[in-house]
Design goal:
Elements (H helix, E strand, L loop, with lengths): L5 E4 L6 H8 L2 H4 L10 H13 L6 E9 L4 E10 L5 E8 L8 H16 L4 E7 L3 H9 L3 E12 L2 E11 H5 L2 H8 L4
Parallel strand pairs: 4-5
Antiparallel strand pairs: 1-2, 2-3, 3-4, 5-7, 6-7
Helix pairs in contact: 1-3
Pfam family, one: Acetyltransf_3
GO molecular function, one term: acyltransferase activity, transferring groups other than amino-acyl groups
InterPro entries: Acyl_CoA_acyltransferase, GNAT_dom, N-acetyltransferase
Length: about 190
C-alpha cells in the first residue's frame, strides 16, 4: 500500500537493525509491552515472524511503515485479525523522529481503509495505556469511539495501568471524510 509519503509493506530481513533501533528508544517503548533496549537477536526473530504471517488470515500481521522518499523504516502497524475474519485489533509504533508529523495518522488510515474496504471487516478495535494521550488522540482523530476504561488492567514494566478501549465500525469509517481522502489518494 502506498500513501502520499509512506509505503506500507511486508517486513524484510533488511529491517532488523532499524526495528531494533526504534524499539530500543525508551520513549517509544514506554507504553509498549517490550522493554528497551530491543536486542538485534530479538528483532531478527520478530522480523522473521512478521514476514511469515499473512494480512488476510486470522492471527497477527505487522505492516512495515517505510518513509518512501527516505527509503527508511519508520514504524509499524499491528493488526490481529480475529478467527471470524470480521473483526480486528490494531496498534501502531513510530520512531520518535517521525512522531507528531502525521505519519501515524497516514499509515493507520491506509490500513483501516484496507481492512474495511478490501477485507470487509465489521469492526476494528484499539487499546492503549490511559497515560498514552497521543495514541488515544490519534484513534479519536481517526474516528474511533471510546468504548471503555479498564482500571488497572495491564501489568506493564512492574506497574498496573489503566487501559482505554476504542472501537470503529465499518459504516463509521466508510462514511468518513478521511476514508474519502484515502480513496482519492489525497493528503490526510
Amino acid at each position: 500500500m502506498a500513501t502520499e509519503r509512506l509505503t506500507l509493506r511486508r517486513f524484510r530481513a533488511s529491517d532488523v537493525v532499524r526495528l531494533a533501533e526504534y524499539r530500543s528508544d525508551p520513549d517509544v517503548a514506554r507504553y509498549q509491552s517490550w522493554v528497551a533496549p530491543f536486542p538485534l537477536d530479538r528483532a531478527e526473530v520478530a522480523v522473521r515472524n512478521f514476514a511469515a504471517s499473512s494480512p488476510d488470515e486470522a492471527g497477527h500481521f505487522q505492516y512495515a511503515i517505510e518513509h518512501t522518499a527516505e527509503r527508511v523504516l519508520v514504524g509499524d502497524v499491528y493488526v490481529r485479525l480475529h478467527d471470524n475474519l470480521q473483526q480486528a485489533e490494531i496498534g501502531f509504533t513510530l520512531a520518535q523522529a517521525y512522531q507528531g508529523k502525521g505519519f501515524a495518522f497516514e499509515a493507520v488510515s491506509a490500513v483501516l481503509d484496507r481492512l474495511f474496504r478490501r477485507q470487509r471487516l465489521h469492526k476494528v478495535t484499539g487499546e492503549c495505556d490511559a497515560r498514552n494521550v497521543a495514541s488515544a488522540a490519534l484513534m479519536e482523530r481517526l474516528g474511533f469511539q471510546r468504548e471503555g476504561l479498564l482500571r488497572q488492567q495491564t501489568l506493564i514494566k512492574g506497574e498496573w495501568t489503566d487501559d482505554l478501549l476504542y472501537g470503529l465500525l465499518a459504516p463509521e469509517w466508510l462514511g468518513s471524510e478521511q476514508a474519502g481522502r484515502v480513496r482519492a489518494g489525497q493528503p490526510s
